[in-house]
Write a structure and sequence with these properties.
With 188 residues, the chain is mainly α. Helix content is 71%, strand content 0%.
Length: 188
Amino acid sequence: MSRAGCGAHTRWVAQRMQPTPLRAAADPLGAIRLGVRSLAVLSFVLVAFFMSAPAIAQSEEGWGYALSNELMSPWCPGFSLPDCSSGYAQDLRMWILEQERLGRPEADVKAEILARYGEKMLQAPEAKGRGVLAYVIPGVVIALGLALIVTFLRRQGTPAQVPAAADASALSRVDAELAEYERKNPSA
């Protein structure tokens, strides 16, 4: 068996034999890259999901169904209007569809409902006034969290480098042990 490159192979095998968390700890930048990639994929999936749901609802039916799905029920706290089993919720859904059939603009119908029942009818706050905070605060918190993680990992520093002399002596010991093993086990 050739001894050329045996040390490099041994190091490679030793690194691959480590459990994944230890490999990640040994390569903090790799862990950060993995985290950023995972966060990017998760963000893409969530944006794609939330952006396509209203478009699908509007393309299948008119704006009446889409508006009904955007509203919460004032009679069943915690439920959307279509999920509420109250007769009043059913009447409001039918009224919205009737307004659509009569040709009223969606904005007028939505404004009338909000004037009658209040902002609590909205599943998500509108992105104006104080409602903007509902969209800005999570982004700021995520950015601060990522900055904190990056700062923490940078302060941890890289693992101490093994001096070249110690590395050469360790490789010579490994070579000696391999030679001893091959001498004792010729069939291996």
